[in-house]
């Protein structure tokens, strides 16, 4: 009896020990010990960010990064991030990289968008910080970020040459009478003609190249944008004052002026 009981007890203890060993094995985990952050270099830190019709899709800068080391073989994801100079990357502009050391190339249009998306204005020299972030696993897993590289640039919108019938001016009693023109200035970035000037109460029209062969007039609320037609009726200023005039000219496929829009505020 004693021998049978002793053998049963020993068997139970052996089984329990085996189960305990199995549980300890099941609880074994990989410990992530980051040992080397990625490094980032840029092909240029002062890219040309003046957009033209020929460079918008051209390479502005290439960002090359080395591999991170998390202390074990891992599937690592890399992301190129941008923030304002000195920012903490809490809301970065990001571009995905690969799963290994490599490079990310941005076009002029893409890099201009980085600056503007971060709140910088056109035609203003500004700086952004770039870094590459390496991650493994989910969002709660450790990350490693490279030291930042500072990029300096002046984002400039696309400048389009004037193909809108030549020079444009305002003429009429709202300005200096029907025999004298007030020239408008062409803005290649907005493709509009503008003038900031004191105007009289009275009528006016727009004409090209100080000549009546091509002129624009129309009807409508000038403060909201009045549609213009070639040889259209005279426009009118109701109250004398200082106004900003913005003229948009429409042309057809041959380049001939066919209409436009005028805003006076």
Question: If you had to describe this structure to a student in words, what would you say it looks like?
Answer:
With 265 residues, the protein is mainly beta. It folds into 2 domains: 40-153, Sandwich (Immunoglobulin-like), CATH 2.60.40; 168-264. Helix content is 13%, strand content 42%. The protein is built from 2 helices and 18 strands. The chain has helices spanning 2-26, 108-117, and strands at residues 40-42, 59-65, 76-84, 93-96, 102-107, 126-136, 143-145, 149-153, 168-172, 177-183, 185-187, 192-199, 202-208, 215-219, 226-230, 235-237, 241-251, 257-264. Strands 9, 10, 11, 12, 13, 14, 15, 16, 17 and 18 form a 10-stranded antiparallel sheet that branches. Strand 11 and strand 12 (192-199) form a beta hairpin. The longest helix has 25 residues, at 2-26. The N and C termini lie far apart (110 Å). The model is unreliable at 1-28 (pLDDT under 50).
